[in-house]
Amino acid sequence: MQLSDLVFYALAAFTIIAALGVVALPNIVHSALCLVLTFIGVAGIYFYLGADFIGLIQILAYAGAISVLMIFAVMLLLSRDVSESNPSHKKGKYLAALFSGLFAFLLALSIYSTSWDLTEGAEIVDSIGKIAYMLMGDYVIAFEAAAILLLAAVIGAVILARGEEKR
């Protein structure tokens, strides 16, 4: 076993443990934070496989924007613990574990029964440098306009979540 194999297995284990934290933790804020770790683990796997642009987008879009938005919405709007207020939550836990175990068994069976052909990979091209040059050069106005639009959307969400103040 080579060092690169160990790196891949470590990234995969980190991602799986974080994903288990998403579904197993009873506190929704902790689950959302584990979701951020899951996104970072997936980005690490993308970087390991040489897909640097997809890994960067994974960090920017999912681990950054989407996760912050989810945590922000949960902290603003959730006033009670969901697991205590929903009695059907505990009933379906065992059924979900059964189906998850069956799915994992079928997935492992299909992975081990498939013959994987090894081929030489394509030449790695630096695509991030070109995209960064375009975003900060030719398309800087569109990039900044999108950032201002997202900022306005976040401010509007905060105003709507607060409601009207009594005068």
TrEMBL record:
A single MF term (Gene Ontology)? quinone binding
| Record keyword S-adenosyl-L-methionine present | no
Chain ranges passing through the membrane: 6-25, 32-49, 55-78, 94-112, 139-161
Membrane topology (UniProt): Multi-pass membrane protein
Q: Which reaction does it catalyse?
A: a quinone + NADH + 5 H(+)(in) = a quinol + NAD(+) + 4 H(+)(out)
Q: What is its main location?
A: membrane
Q: Which domain of life is it from?
A: Bacteria
Q: What class of enzyme is it?
A: translocase
Q: EC no.? A: 7.1.1.-
GO (cellular component) term, any one? plasma membrane
**Gene3D superfamilies given for it?**
NADH-ubiquinone/plastoquinone oxidoreductase chain 6, subunit NuoJ
The alphabetical list of record keywords is: Cell membrane, Membrane, NAD, Quinone, Transmembrane, Transmembrane helix
Quote the subcellular location field of this record.
Cell membrane
Identify its protein family.
Belongs to the complex I subunit 6 family.
Query: What function does this protein fulfil?
Result: NDH-1 shuttles electrons from NADH, via FMN and iron-sulfur (Fe-S) centers, to quinones in the respiratory chain. Couples the redox reaction to proton translocation (for every two electrons transferred, four hydrogen ions are translocated across the cytoplasmic membrane), and thus conserves the redox energy in a proton gradient.
Record's protein name: NADH-quinone oxidoreductase subunit J
| Organism field | Thermosyntropha lipolytica DSM 11003
